[in-house]
Amino acid sequence: MDELEEGAGPKWVRTTVELDNHVIVPDVDPTAMSIEPNKTLEDYLSSLSTLPMDHSRPLWEFHVLDFPTSEAVAALAFRAHHSLGDGTSLLSLLVASAGSSKVLPTTAPRRVSTIKALSPRSPSSPATGAVAVFTVWIMSLLLLVWHTVVDIVCFVATAASILRDPPTLFKGADGVEFRPKRFVNCRLSLDDIKYVKSVMCCTVNDVLLGVTSAALSRYYFRETGESGKRNIKVRSTFIVNLRKMTGLHTLASMMKSDKDNGVKWGNQLGYMLLPFHIEKHDDPLKYVEKAMRIAHRKKSSMESVFTNWSALMIKKIFGIKATASLCHALFKNTTILFSNMVGPTEQVTLYGHPILYIAPSIYGQQHALTIHCQSYMNIVKLVLAIDEAQLPNADGLLEDFVESLRLIREATSRKPHGVEECSQKEHRHGDT
């Protein structure tokens, strides 16, 4: 930022990169490394969340932690400012760095309810079929408009601090953004998640939301000692990738300057306010069923597109500080930050070193609990960023996620699998 220029704002400039300032090999206590390597890694990452980045140089760092843990022979921590890009951008950069021989996995374009998908399969006549199609199209459009208006009103009320989540065990206290975060993670079986998905006729995202709701409920009632008769609703700020294609893309296509390029580099994301219900169910599948209903409702809304557009307009008219204030209020008045992303389906090697897991997270926002789900190969890495002062039993919360998926998987195996019914639902609603 040119401080001599009146009304100047921050801008990108080319600079010379000194690698010694960005590749860091820290001195770690050898005794701690040998006795508790996992905790040593967690402690070091937690310490990074208290250190501001040096704005006099490019805002990224590689921390090489060259000692074995229970999962790998070494760890590489990449810390970057969010202004450099969102998760899709940075993950595409990581895979591109692995070499041009790797083929990036992509997913099909987003499925949107279409006339063909909603039309009757066997209309009695062309005229009757046309009327039915038109009626369904009008009803779908009206429903989309209504849901979008309702969601926009809730979003604006939340950003204006009119609508706030109630104080709960998970709600971030004042000043939580300045306290250190502990980053913990565990593995969830992607095969188990896909099995539940196929039997329940839903999406992978629906299953993850159901598992999250079940895990939060287990943790809450165990830690508070409450009876479980209450139904507490907390909201998460759910991050949505707004690119035309979901998944990963070639780095070259993301770096194109063409404004019509739907997969360009940067922060191409919006937000949804997604509720989680903390309650006790005798049947674990109730958590997935409720998550399916909530997710299906949110898919019939343009909330994420509006939040992205409104942030761009506020930034253009009032500046970056006003946009930051909007995000601050949104995060402060919700309880959880939630995100999930599709990663490579095959193992990636970085300069000859095979990457065994990818565990992204974020800090600096007004949440005591942040949940990231990252698929890679045949696993889903669940990553929690936790304010230990408020949620001291981080390992217990991780175990609740693992146990919740196990219970849901077992309950699913006892449920009859209606293949034809499932295929019809996927035909109508699409898959994610």
UniProtKB/TrEMBL annotation:
Source species, domain of life: Eukaryota
GO CC terms, sorted: endoplasmic reticulum membrane; plasma membrane
Topology in the lipid bilayer: Single-pass membrane protein
InterPro entries from the UniProt entry: O-acyltransferase_WSD1-like, O-acyltransferase_WSD1_C, O-acyltransferase_WSD1_N
Name under which the protein is recorded: Diacylglycerol O-acyltransferase
Catalytically driven reaction(s): an acyl-CoA + a 1,2-diacyl-sn-glycerol = a triacyl-sn-glycerol + CoA; a long chain fatty alcohol + a fatty acyl-CoA = a long-chain alcohol wax ester + CoA
Signal peptide start-end: none
Domain O-acyltransferase WSD1 C-terminal per the UniProt entry, residue ranges: 265-408
